[in-house]
Write a structure and sequence with these properties.
The chain is of the alpha+beta class and 238 residues long. It contains 6 helices and 14 strands.
């Protein structure tokens, strides 16, 4: 049995993320294998697109600061690295997510659509950063989160109050940068609002919305970093 990866949650107020011209040797050396793997995945999910994404290296926590270097690569290389068990330990998957919290304390999560790379998984709104999130060679995770939340739920910056701090959930090869987004609306009404938005989308990223009010609402399809963070929130530590 594979041992569980330990999860550490850091509360930070500053993200210092810069983008370099680093060339990923893993992507170069295993190009043919990567392309074959992506072609196979595309046969199962034709909507998969080999766009450009950002991957991190050299992460560092220093008090209330989190810093890291990012570089650009193709989604096929990122997916192969992930699917093959993270063979290059020098890089990490660092992404932002918006933790949407209703007025009554209910936490909003989305069920990933069948056509997506993470079909069926239940997450907070968010995703892998891409070049559109870069300004003057700095990765703006706050902008990435706002973009993903709008794309997945229809909520804009005017619909929520974003916390001043972040929780960085560190679990093996990933660092999820989570920001609480408080919405002044009860959970059931907020769920219905987002579901109405999804019903009007041609191909929504989410196939459903799931509310969490207690551990009884946890699902097997939630990754461990998600349940670890939810457990902290439910204890009142935000």
């Amino acid at each position: 049995m594979t041992p569980e990866v330990p999860v550490t949650i850091h509360r930070v107020t500053h993200l210092d993320l810069w983008v370099s011209d680093h060339v990923w040797s893993f992507a170069d050396k295993r190009r043919a294998e990567i392309d074959a793997h992506f072609a196979e995945r595309q046969r199962d999910k034709p909507e998969l697109w080999n766009g450009r994404v950002l991957v991190g290296r050299q992460p560092r926590f220093d008090g209330v600061y989190f810093s890291a270097e990012y570089f650009e690569t193709d989604f096929a290389s990122f997916m192969a690295w992930r699917d093959w068990g993270f063979p290059d330990a020098s890089v990490f998957n660092g992404f932002g997510m918006g933790v949407i919290r209703a007025r009554d304390g209910a936490i909003v999560l989305g069920v990933m659509g069948a056509h997506t790379a993470n079909a069926g998984k239940v997450y907070f709104a968010g995703g892998t950063p891409d070049p559109s999130d870069v300004r003057n060679r700095r990765l703006e995770i706050a902008s990435s989160v706002a973009r993903e939340v709008k794309e997945e739920t229809g909520l804009t910056r005017l619909d929520y109050h974003a916390a001043d701090h972040w929780h960085c959930v560190e679990a093996g090869p990933l660092v999820a940068m989570l920001r609480i987004l408080d919405v002044d609306q009860p959970g059931d009404a907020l769920k219905a609002r987002i579901e109405h938005f999804l019903s009007r989308e041609t191909k929504p990223e989410l196939s459903g919305i799931h509310l969490v009010r207690s551990k009884a609402d946890f699902l097997p399809t939630m990754p461990r970093f998600v349940t670890a963070y939810l457990t902290m929130l439910l204890h009142g530590d935000d």
